[in-house]
């Protein structure tokens, strides 16, 4: 097998590692490309291409994350990971860990960890790498990596909900949610929302921003049902879609361009959080991006005409 063939076979794994460390599709793709360049230029063929390439993409991602942390401190408004529609890597033996680690909620928890803790947690808890491989990847002793893994696990477990809905329950509730949403059914929506539900958007200052967000079932249900009917009247489309392995949707304008993505956190039979990503810099990989400001102006006009 040639180096190119080896690399392409492992590309899905490398991207999945990088994305979970970085929370960014574009940065993960760049990290994978940098990994290929280093592999192509290496003088010798490693005994294990998987171990070598995983170590390289981890080191590259950690370096990128350290500089990205500085930029995120200056980010305008809430910061969410870039939405991922499909994880290219599959491993039936670890499907639960892969799915759990992909959700917006899990990725935001990972943001609380140091770059090394995050890398060790991802390699160990998500991809089940052994500590010898992890130690080689992050340049620390096995003992230090075990400590990093234990510390990261404690942080992650402390932030996770105690009871999680299974996939079928999440999908059924999400279907009811979007049905009520499309119908403008305020009461139907309110029944599906947790009392302390939050609706928060990541615009990065480059798209319309919903103040600091909306909180509570009454406020969230009102803003949702006020927003959708005029959006639909101007040709907007709500396309239910799995986003980061969770129920969600892609909002498109009349030309099919992406306005934003939504993800739903569902727990105990209720929607606990709605996270939207409208920063155009984070949507290019989903498809051509709409002018969200123009869509908002047209939506508001359609709403005022209906009143």
Written overview of the protein:
- The structure is a single chain.
- With 307 residues, the protein is α+β, with helices and mostly antiparallel strands.
- The chain has helices at residues 3-22, 25-41, 49-73, 95-102, 104-110, 115-126, 131-138, 142-159, 167-183, 186-192, 217-233, 292-306; strands at 193-202, 214-215, 237-243, 246-252, 258-267, 270-277.
- Helix 2 crosses helix 3 and helix 3 (49-73) crosses helix 7.
- The N and C termini lie far apart (66 Å).
- 39% of the residues are buried.
Would you summarize the structure shown here?
This protein has 307 residues and is an alpha+beta fold. The chain contains 12 helices and 6 strands.
List keywords for this structure.
six-stranded mixed beta sheet, WH-like_DNA-bd_sf, 307 residues, Butyryl-CoA Dehydrogenase, subunit A, domain 3, single chain, 14% strand, 12 helices, alpha+beta, Nuclear Transport Factor 2, Chain: A, sigma factor, RNA_pol_sigma_r3/r4-like, 6 strands, 2 domains
Record the SSE blueprint.
Blueprint: H1 3-22, H2 25-41, H3 49-73, H4 95-102, H5 104-110, H6 115-126, H7 131-138, H8 142-159, H9 167-183, H10 186-192, E1 193-202, E2 214-215, H11 217-233, E3 237-243, E4 246-252, E5 258-267, E6 270-277, H12 292-306
Parallel strand pairs: 1-6
Antiparallel strand pairs: 1-2, 3-4, 4-5, 5-6
């Amino acid at each position: 097998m040639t180096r190119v063939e080896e690399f392409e076979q492992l590309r899905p794994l490398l991207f999945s590692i990088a994305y979970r460390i970085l929370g960014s599709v574009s940065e993960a793709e760049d990290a994978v490309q940098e990994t290929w360049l280093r592999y192509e230029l290496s003088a010798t063929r490693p005994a294990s291409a998987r171990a070598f390439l995983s170590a390289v993409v981890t080191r590259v991602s950690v370096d990128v994350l350290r500089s990205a942390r500085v930029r995120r401190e200056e980010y305008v408004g809430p910061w969410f990971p870039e939405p991922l529609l499909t994880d290219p890597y599959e491993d039936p033996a670890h499907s639960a860990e892969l799915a759990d680690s992909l959700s917006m909620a899990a990725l935001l928890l990972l943001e609380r960890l140091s770059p090394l803790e995050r890398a060790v947690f991802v390699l160990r808890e998500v991809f089940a790498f052994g500590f010898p491989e992890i130690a080689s990847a992050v340049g620390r002793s096995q003992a230090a990596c075990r400590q990093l893994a234990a510390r990261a696990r404690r942080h992650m477990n402390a932030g996770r909900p105690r009871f999680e809905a299974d996939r079928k329950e999440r999908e059924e509730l999400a279907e009811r949610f979007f049905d009520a949403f499309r119908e403008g059914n305020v009461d139907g929506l309110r029944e599906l929302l947790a009392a302390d539900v939050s609706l928060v958007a990541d615009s990065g200052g480059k798209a319309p921003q919903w103040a600091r967000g909306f909180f509570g079932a009454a406020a969230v249900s009102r803003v949702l049902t006020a927003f959708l009917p005029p959006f639909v009247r101007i040709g907007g489309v709500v396309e239910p879609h799995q986003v980061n392995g969770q129920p969600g949707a892609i909002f498109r304008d009349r030309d099919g361009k992406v306005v934003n993505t939504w993800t739903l956190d569902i727990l105990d039979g209720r929607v606990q959080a709605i996270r939207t990503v409208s920063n155009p810099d984070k949507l290019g990989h989903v498809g051509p991006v709409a002018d969200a400001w123009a869509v908002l102006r047209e939506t508001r006009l359609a709403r005022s005409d209906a009143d």
